[in-house]
Amino acid sequence: MTEGEWTIREGGLERRFVFADFAEAWAFMSRVALLAERHDHHPDWTNVWNRVDIRLTSHDSGGITDRDHRLAEAIDGLT
Question: I need a surface site. Which of 3, 18, 22, 59 has the fewest CB within 10 A?
Fold first, then answer.
């Protein structure tokens, strides 16, 4: 897997993760989904073949909060 860094864009934290193939990308998304449930904070994301783009923002607060940073750190722990 290759990955970028979290960046701030239009009021959200964003990061792209790139994997060897679709199966690896899907497995990562499954791990993130379980993690997000534990954090009670759910990402906006897209998946195209081996790529997963994640965006974290606290919609109820209108931008980035500590919850977003905590989930980003937890997601980083999966890689």
Answer: 59
User: What are the E-state strand segments in the chain?
Assistant: 2-3, 7-9, 12-18, 44-48, 51-56
First and final C-alpha spacing in the chain: 8
CB atoms within 10 A of CB 66: 9
Q: How many CA atoms lie within 13 A of 40 on its CB side?
A: 0
Determine the pLDDT at residue 7.
Answer: 95
- Provide the 3-class DSSP secondary structure of residue 43: coil
Stated pTM of the model: 0.90
- Which backbone phi and psi does 67 adopt, to 5 degrees? -60, -40
